[in-house]
Structure formats: structure tokens, C-alpha cells
Amino acid sequence: MHKVLQSLQLSLLNIGYAHLDSHWNYDNVISPFTRMYYITKGSAKVYHNGKEFSLKPGYMYLIPSYTYSRYKCDEYHEQYYISFFEEIKNGLSIFNLKSFIYEIESTPPDLEYFKRLLEINPNRALIDDDPEVYDNRPTLLHFKRKNEKLSAAFFLETRGFLNILLSRFIEDTSDSTVRTNSGYNLSQVLNYIGENLHRELTISELASYCHLSTDYFSRIFKDKFGMRPNIYMQSKRVERAQLLLLTTNYSLQQIAEKVGLENLSYFSRVFKKHAGKTPGNFRREQMKV
Fold first, then answer.
1. Residue 247: what pLDDT?
2. What is the pLDDT of residues 30-70, one digit of tens each?
3. Do 156 and 52 share a structural domain?
4. Cα–Cα distance, 126 to 14 (Å, whole number)
């Protein structure tokens, strides 16, 4: 597992300090990046992963990428906030490979990490707290390119602090992965899926890779990851397609081929099933500033 984590790449998008009131009230927020908050004053609520989190001073909060979430502040609160892209080799997400907790009490160094990140990354604050304003392709690319303008020292320091802060949320449990009777770590199949998303994958192929029967593999996969393998693969193909729609100028046909859904009509149906809109509509909406 640690060998896989060596390929983890965290790319800063935004960091800032916000004074927020009852206008901070947004629903149906699903973003291709991860959010992290450090609350300093007041209170608010965030909903994601089927749970309500009451934001309170002295605590930090994590919202994984591609997670449906809601935000609500009844009166007033202040927060440091960070948004960043995260990726492991083959397009996987660390959230597929490790268990996370989403609320932790901060330690004194945590606040200093946020302050230092803000100091060495000026002009990375959001100009508007409305996700519809900043969660679009031009804005995301604009902030991502700022990493290229950092000095080598600040670039490494930024990545180091992001790694430290993200590590604070990892639930380090010895039984966080499912193993077969032979000791096979089921999480390894996620890496195999990520390596082969550009082509057709069958359940029997995945089961054979794990040296398991198809039925048994499907059952323990669902027990571990909460969905059947075919649904998981579809969701990963759509997530990768969303990232390509946001960050490249590839045609829809090219993107369909890169995510293993070469039939454009089928690609559009699968995309709409998971994202609620067609790839073309998704890209057009994301082009709006």
C-alpha cells in the first residue's frame, strides 16, 4: 500500500480565509477536487457521505472529491479553506484505497500549516464563495497553473504541507482492506481497474485477476466498496471523463475512447446516468465563468 501512496500527487487550487454568513447556503455541490476547512469562529453545517457535520472552532473538516455535499451557515463563521486535486497513479483516488474520517480536532501545528500555505500562496483566494462561480473549467485551470509559477522551494513546501494535513484524516486501521482466504488484498484490484479504464473490463476478468470465482468476487467487492464492480467501473470512467472534460480540449469521442466507452452514444448514456447531464452539457456549463 505504501508503494502505491508514493505516487500520490496533490495539486493546490485555492487557499484563503473567509468570513461567511447566511449566504453560505449551497446544495447539490459535486466537485472534482477535495476541500479542507479549518474553522476559527462561529458555526455552520456541512452534509456529505450521508452524515451531517457541525462545523465548530478548533476543528478541521475534509470533503472528498466527487462527493455530493451541502453547505449551510445560519448566522456567521470564519474558516481557512483549501481545495486541491489529488491523484494516485492510473487515475485512482486515495479515497478508494484508504479509510478517512472527515472531522478531527486540530493540533497547534495545524493552524500554522494553514497560515504558512496562505503566506506562500498569495492570490489563491476565491473571489466568490458560490460553487457555481468557481467550480468551472477556466477558473480551475487558472488556479492550477499558479503552481507552475511557484519557486521550487515553495512548490515542495506547499506539497509537503498538503500531504501532512491530508494525512491527519487517514483512519489507520489494520482491517481497512478486505482479504480473501489466501490473504489477497482486494484493494489491489482498484489499481488494476485504474490501469485498464481505457478498455473494456469484465467481471470475470477482475475475478480471475483476484483468483476468485465471479460470484464470490462480486459479493465481497460490494461488501467492501458498497457497490457492484460494474457500477464502480462506470463511476470511475465518468469521474475520469469529467476531469478530462475540465482540463483538456479532447473531443467527446476522444474522451469516450480514453475511458473505455468507445461508443459515443453509450458513453453519453452512462455519463448522464452518473452525472445527471450529458458530457456536452457538462463541458458547456463548465466553460461558463
1. 74
2. 788 899 999 999 999 999 887 899 999 999 999 998 888 89
3. yes
4. 7
Convert 134-146 to b/e letters by CB count within 10 Å (16 or more is b).
bbbbebbeebbee
213 & 125 share domain: no
3-state SS assignment for residue 19: strand
- What average pLDDT does the segment 25-29 reach? 86
Residue 178 pLDDT:
45
Amino acid letter for position 53: F
Angle, nearest 10°, between helix axes 214-225 and 229-247?
Answer: 60
Q: What is the rounded CA–CA span in Å between residue 62 and residue 81?
A: 10
CA–CA separation, 80 and 167 (whole Å)? 18
User: Residue 181 domain-assigned?
Assistant: no
pLDDT-derived band at 17, boundaries 50, 70, 90: very high
Cα atoms in the Cβ-side hemisphere of radius 13 Å centred on 19: 0
Which range has the worst mean pLDDT, 8-17, 79-88, 171-180, 219-228?
A: 171-180
Q: Supply the range of the domain harboring residue 269.
A: 188-286
Q: What is the DSSP letter of 159?
A: H
Radius of gyration of the chain (CA): 20
* Same domain assignment for residues 159 and 198: no
Measure the CA–CA gap between 129 and 52, rounded to whole angstroms: 20
CA–CA separation, 217 vs 236, rounded Å? 18
